């Protein structure tokens, strides 16, 4: 299943190839203040493929927290955060915000809370390697 998505203004867009077709899409609502403020409800398909296009890279701010193990891609044009990436041993892994998905029936989303408080850096990276999208291509179009 090909799932398109984008931030509100379209500066950051993506196509997620969900393999195999989903029966349901997990939608993990992180309880941290950043995700709550930015409507961060994350999903990923470890066997999927993600192609991201950034029209104007100068309009994307990459925000990291204290551990600096992930980058939240914040569109400065509209304020949306459609994508989070993590570099693990030279490979980019990603999750996408369900609020950025286009054309998905709400009944397909299986909402669940998520909290990562107290998770060690090693456990965090292992979780991402196992559950995040592992095949990620990001194309930036310089303006």
Biggest sheet overview: 7 strands, mixed
End-to-end C-alpha gap = 31 Å
Low-confidence segments, given as residue ranges, are none
Mean pLDDT: 94
Question: Strand-and-helix sequence, N→C?
Answer: EEEHEEEEEEEHE
Binned strand content: 35-45%
Strand line-up across the major sheet: 6-7-8-9-4-3-10
Structure description:
The termini are far apart. The protein has helices at residues 33-37, 121-131, and strands at 2-6, 12-17, 25-30, 41-43, 49-54, 60-63, 71-75, 83-88, 91-97, 109-114, 135-140. With 143 residues, the protein is mainly beta. The relative contact order is 0.27. β6 (60-63) and β7 (71-75) form a beta hairpin. It has a 7-stranded mixed beta sheet, covered by helices on one side. A 4-stranded mixed beta sheet has the order 1-2-5-11, with no helix packed on it. The protein is built from 2 helices and 11 strands.
